[in-house]
Design a protein that fits this description.
This protein is α/β, with parallel strands linked by helices. Helices cover 35% and strands 27% of the residues. It has helices at residues 39-46, 68-74, 91-101, 106-119, 135-147, 165-177, 212-223, and strands at 2-11, 14-24, 28-33, 54-59, 62-63, 75-78, 153-157, 181-185, 197-202, 205-210. The strands form two sheets. It has a six-stranded mixed sheet with strand order 6-7-8-3-9-10, sandwiched between helices. It binds adenosine-5'-triphosphate. Adenosine-5'-triphosphate is lined by residues 11, 16, 33, 35-41. GO terms for molecular function: ATP binding; ATP hydrolysis activity; ATPase-coupled transmembrane transporter activity.
Length: 224
């Protein structure tokens, strides 16, 4: 379980999150809200990329303030722009990168890399230059690089924004099939029908927390 207790955060004197308390126990949680409403800051709190000014964030009891390293092992993070996540020249090297830091042996690394390449349809691209992949393939690569680490939770921060409709749907299918808990920040409301729970952010607060139908209706009402 991920739990936020009375979390507030500001950048300079600009409040970005105001007294957010919630627990995430569902497997598929989406987050929507206007630009600047605090969604990315919320996402970054979940794996300790941002430490809140006030309140606490815990992941299976580990506090992001004091157990950052262990939290990042548990919570994978997929960014909007996969180019920011690609580190190594080829697809397979990029996927293996994080595993090398875990000091796994070579055979185990090769087994895990081959497993995700196969599962997400990238095997034929494994020796290609990562930067020469299409936008959709790059996002798949970024997701593979996170999933190969076998996190318990995966946070997706607007992973479909740069993709065409076919690739948007593909990412949503992948998320739907994950064994992990997924927290999915998105402006693509039509992709969220299958989620268990949708949080609506407005002005740094959660103003609706419901199943997709009513939560999305509330968001649309706020935007009018
Ligand atoms: N590192 C930072 N330094 C200063 N201000 C920041 C920083 N990151 C975000 N902000 C500000 O905090 C507010 C909330 O930003 P955040 O990215 O969390 O919103 P968001 O809901 O994800 O927006 P979007 O839909 O545009 O991605 C915005 O006003 C933004 O300008």
């Amino acid at each position: 379980m991920i739990e936020l207790i009375q979390v507030s955060h500001r950048y300079g004197d600009h409040p970005v999150l105001r007294d957010v308390s919630l627990s995430i126990t569902e497997r598929r949680v989406a987050v929507v809200g206007a630009n600047g409403s605090g969604k990315s800051t919320f996402a970054r709190l979940l794996n300790g990329l941002v430490i809140p000014d006030e309140g606490t964030v815990t992941v299976d009891g580990l506090d992001t303030r004091t157990d950052g390293k262990a939290v990042r092992r548990k919570v994978g993070f997929v960014f909007q722009d996969p180019d920011t996540q690609i580190v190594y020249p080829t697809v397979e090297e990029d996927i293996a990168f994080g595993l090398k830091n875990l000091k796994l042996d070579k055979a185990e690394i090769a087994r895990r890399v081959a497993g995700v390449l196969d599962r997400y349809g990238l095997t034929e691209h494994r020796t290609r230059s990562a930067h020469l992949l299409s936008g959709g393939q790059k996002q798949l690569l970024a997701i593979c690089s996170v999933l190969v680490m076998e996190p318990a939770y995966v946070v997706f921060d607007e992973p479909t924004t740069l993709l065409d409709l076919r690739n948007k749907r593909k990412i949503v299918e992948i998320v739907a099939g994950l064994p992990q808990t997924a927290i999915f920040i998105s402006h693509d409301l039509d992709l969220l029908g299958g989620f268990d729970r949708v949080l609506v952010f407005d002005g740094g607060r959660v103003v609706a927390d419901d199943c997709p139908g009513p939560a999305i209706a509330r968001y649309i009402e706020l935007m009018n």
